[in-house]
Amino acid sequence: MNEINESVMEFLLEMTAIILEVDKDDIDEEADLDEIGYESMSVNRLCLAINEKLDISLTPALFLSVTSLSALAEYLLDNHFQNVDQKL
Predict the structure, then answer these.
(1) Which of 22, 35, 46, 51 could cross-link to 31 by cystine, CB 3.0-4.6 Å?
(2) 34 C-beta neighbours (distance < 10 Å), count
(3) Whether the predicted model's global pTM rises above the 0.85 cut
């Protein structure tokens, strides 16, 4: 994993730990978001945190197709690389 991939995943893990009030080391980045404890309100909080940090406009609907933190990291790198590179 290169530096920018690591930065994205670290950000997502940190936000998840804060939002779900769990230890970052206990989060499986490959698990489905619902398996690690996300539900509609917490997905909204994650979406807002990402939008604020990266200055983008994701909607919670994205999480119907992007179902894990690793898939979310990949989506962000594929679709918002410039913002990720500048902000993380």
Answers:
(1) 35
(2) 11
(3) yes
